[in-house]
Amino acid sequence: MQPLESYHDTTNDPAMVLRTVDFRRLADLIERRAGINLPQHKMALVAHRLQRRLRALKIATLRDYCDFLLTNEQAEAEMPHFINALTTNKTEFFREPSHFDFLTEVALPDLHSRRHYNSALPLMAWSAACSTGMEVYTLAMVLAEWNETHGGLPFMIHGTDIDTNVLQDAARAVYHREVIEPVPTALRHKYLLRPRTSSDETIRIAPELRARTRWGHLNLMEGGSPSDRPFDIVFCRNVLIYFSKETQQLVLESICKHITPGGYLFVSHSETLNGLSLPVKSVAPSTYVRL
After folding, report:
1. Contact at 8 Å (CB) between 226 and 216?
2. What's the rounded Cα separation, in Å, for the pair 191 and 156?
3. What is the pTM of this model?
4. Which residue of the set 19, 24, 33, 49 is catalytic?
5. Which strand (E) or helix (H) includes residue 13?
6. Which of 43, 87, 148, 237 could cysteine-pair with 8, CB 3.0–4.6 Å?
7. Which of 179, 160, 284 is nearest to 234 (CA)?
8. How far apart are CA 250 and CA 45, in angstroms?
């Protein structure tokens, strides 16, 4: 019998006991496949989030599920569900609003002045960890407002995420009313559609913004881009904190290859590029220009 400290009992159900050795195997797997670093104190969270997968597969214990993922040749089909279960998807409209102020006041005038000779091509933006799409639709509101005032800057926004479930929510573009509080009142009236019945507590993003968005599954660990064209604006926020420094370097190197020179990269205020070797320069807090 292993010592008691190698077990983490998260429930009264013995099937939900996650052994330390199995947690480490799962943590290593999710880091290799998705770059997500799971510290030891996340054991209870991991055990809780995987319960649904055990029920779906009719697997008796977390230990059996771990063995299935790592030894069964059919486990590849389960891998997206495993990654979805352990992905954090916190997001909101106008999160870290200073980034959108910078876009309006600095980045968009700069990009517009350099693109006036070819305004037929849309400005390209990418939300590289878009979750349920609130960041993408925030970008769409900001770009639509700027373009309405200044003209000559059509745009397309690509949203990608490793979690296939949240991409479906993003494409549906339907949200509960309680999440729209950060959206300025004027933009709510203009871009958020309310249901016909007062009992319906949802809103939907207006079709003119939905038409400017594209959605796709993308694992940042595997590199690649959702478009053949380079991007003028990339938001990669609140995802780097889940990566090791080595993975951050790998992911951002790949992303920078898909940013046009003079394009803008935004990371979260809780993230830093210090210690990384990248072809960018800082122009504002957590805001960089591609060299």
Report:
1. yes
2. 16
3. 0.89
4. 49
5. none
6. 43
7. 160
8. 27
The CA angle 249-254-257, to the nearest 5 degrees, is: 125
Q: Please write the tens of the pLDDT for every residue from 27-81.
A: 999 999 999 999 999 999 999 999 999 999 999 999 999 999 998 888 999 999 9
Beta strands (DSSP E) in the chain are 7-9, 17-19, 123-127, 155-161, 174-176, 192-193, 202-205, 213-217, 231-235, 259-266, 280-284, 287-290
209, containing H or E segment:
helix 207-210
CA distance 244 to 247: 5
- By the 8 A CB rule, do 142 and 100 touch? yes
Q: Kindly state the greatest CA–CA separation across the chain.
A: 73
Six token digits for residue 141: 């509101």
Radius of gyration, CA atoms only, the chain = 21
Reply yes or no on whether 114 is catalytic: no
Task: Determine which one of 22, 95, 115, 161 is catalytic.
Answer: 161
User: H or E segment at 268?
Assistant: none
Is residue 194 among the annotated active site residues? no
Give the number of other Cβ atoms within 10 Å of residue 66's Cβ. Answer: 21
At 79-127, the pLDDT tens digits run: 999 999 999 888 999 999 999 999 999 999 999 988 765 667 899 999 9
